[in-house]
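Attaching the record inline, Q. Sequence:
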Amino acid sequence: MKDDCMTVKPRLYGQYRQGDVFLREVDAIPASAKRVYGQPVVLAEGEAAGHFHRILEREGVYMSESEEGEIARRWLSVDRASVDLVHPEHGTIRIPLGNYEVIRQREYQPEGAREVVD
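Structure, as predicted:
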C-alpha cells in the first residue's frame, strides 16, 4: 500500500537564511542605528571565494549599523515590495517589505567564537 502522506517543512515567517547570513524580521530598527551608505547593499562578504551576499536594487533598500558595547549589529530596511538577496553559490532569496536584523552565523573554536565564512 502506497503511503500518501507527505512531509511538510514548516515555514518560518519573517526569517530568511542564505548560507551564513540570517535575516530576522523586527518591528523597527533601533533609533541609535546609523545608516550605512553605499551601493550595492552588501550584507556579508565571504572570505573563502570572495563572493558577496548582496542586494542589487538601489532604491528603497538601506543598511544601518549600531554598537552595543563590543557588539556591532547590522540592520536592513526594505522600503519597497521586495528585493532579491543574491549570492553566486546560494539560491537567490526574495526579501519582502520590512525591517530585519542581519545576523552572521558564528561557530565556536578553542580560541573563541568567530563568524562562519562561505
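The mean pLDDT is 81. The chain is about 0% helix and 60% strand.

More tomorrow.
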